[in-house]
Design a protein that fits this description.
Length: 199
């Protein structure tokens, strides 16, 4: 299933095609495609080129680590994400590598890497669903994440599955039209709340 964005202005089709379904197929993702995803993330922009992101990944054929990852999700997310063949955590390192000082942009940069990964996934015919609904403390303990790093998101990844495999309430959400706030609500010039003239 596809659910492309209906945009007000023309954008790259790859961006319009990217979305966050909950229906996943159980088909495993090919190792070469997984490597391509993280290669894309590797080339994301970051402050001082520090590359503060870490991805902890579990594939469904690695049953022990997959279950550990699934157990870190809140029950609602686990209910549908358990069909995804790949689960992961996005982790931001808190300090710069070159001087050890706090990196105030680490989470921002880790988010950029995850967004780049999501676009590469779309290009490869895959889908991702990024989640805030996970137990960070459990993830830290489960995967031995050091105090110098912070888990910021979980990701489900794979091929699109059948919407009919979801509970009825989630089926409705899956097929609902996609919506976004108007540009005038967040693109300002001069002062906060003053929409830019080019919109």
């Amino acid at each position: 299933m596809e659910n492309p964005a209906i945009t007000d202005h023309e954008i790259n089709p790859l961006i319009a095609q990217r979305w966050s379904p909950r229906a996943f197929d159980s088909k495993l993702v090919e190792p070469e495609k997984l490597a391509q995803l993280f290669e894309a993330a590797r080339w994301s922009a970051s402050c001082f080129n520090d590359q503060p992101w870490v991805f902890i990944v579990a594939t469904k054929d690695d049953t022990v680590n997959y279950q550990k990852m699934l157990d870190c999700l809140i029950p609602f997310n686990a209910s549908w994400a358990q069909l995804a063949p790949v689960l992961g955590l996005v982790v931001a390192q808190k300090n710069f590598k070159h001087n050890g000082k706090p990196n105030a942009w680490g989470e921002y940069d880790a988010g950029q890497a995850a967004a780049t990964l999501a676009l590469q996934a779309t290009a490869l015919g895959l889908v991702t669903h990024q989640m805030g609904g996970f137990d960070a403390e459990k993830a830290i303990a489960t995967f031995n994440i050091p105090e110098t790093a912070k888990p910021v998101a979980a990701i489900a990844l794979g091929y699109t599955g059948e919407t009919s495999n979801l509970p009825s309430d989630l089926q409705e959400r899956e097929t609902a039209p996609r919506a976004r706030q108007p540009l005038s609500s967040f693109v300002f010039t001069g002062e906060w709340g003053s929409p830019s003239a080019f919109l």
